[in-house]
Amino acid sequence: MNIEKPLQLLKGEHIHSIDYELQRALGALNETYALFVQSLSRYDVTVTWHYYKDVRAWLGKAVKKSKTICWISVWEGFFKVTCYLPQRYRDKVSMLTIDEEILANTLQQDSAKSYISITMNVHTQKQLIDLDSIVQLKLAIK
User: Fold this and answer.
1) What pairs with residue 85 in β-bridges?
2) What three-state secondary structure class fits 133?
3) Residue of 78, 77, 69 whose CA lies nearest to 39
4) Collapsing DSSP states into helix, strand and coil, what is residue 3?
5) Which residue of 62, 72, 98, 133 is 20 to 30 Å from 41, comparing CA positions?
6) 113 Cβ neighbours under 8 A, 6+ residues apart
7) Helix (H, G, I), strand (E, B), or coil: what is residue 11?
8) pLDDT confidence of 112, banded at 50, 70, 90?
C-alpha cells in the first residue's frame, strides 16, 4: 500500500509577496483561513508570516503581546495549526471538547517532555470550533 505523504507548501525562501503566495497556496481554504485569523483577532492575537531557515518553510506565528499562541503552516489540501502547552496543563487539555482523534493523539505524547503539542490539520470551517477551544485554553494559561 502506497500512502502519499502530504506536501508542505510555501517552502521558497525568496517569496516577495507572502500574502499573494499564501492566498494561492490555500486555494479553496482561503475563506476558512481568513475566518481563523478573524477569530484570533477577537482575542487581540495577530498572525505574521516569516521564513524559518531551520524548517526551510514559511510559518505563521500567532502572537498576543509577546506570547506565542500557535504556529501555522500550509500543506497541500489543508493548513496545520500547532499549539504548545506546558505538560502541567495536561489535565486541562484532557478536558477539551475537541475531535476525539486529535485529543487522543495529543494525550499519547511522551509526558517526560516539557511541552505537549496539539496539532490540527484544518480542512473545513467546522474545525474552527475546536481551534477556538484550544486557543482559549492557551490564552488562559500562564
Assistant:
1) 116
2) helix
3) 69
4) coil
5) 98
6) 87
7) coil
8) confident
User: Per residue, what are the HEC states of 64-82?
Assistant: ECCEEEEEEEEECCEEEEE
SS3 120: strand
List of residues 6+ apart from 56 with CB closer than 8 A: 11, 13
The maximal CA–CA distance of the chain, rounded, in angstroms, is: 47
Confidence of residue 29 (pLDDT cuts 50, 70, 90): very high
End-to-end CA gap in the chain: 45
Buried b (16+ CB within 10 A) or exposed e, 65-100: eeeebbbbbbbeebbbbebebeeebeeebeebebee
The grid cell for 98 is 475537541
- pLDDT attached to residue 2: 55
pLDDT in tens, 1-15: 556 789 999 998 888
- In the chain, what are the domain boundaries? 18-136
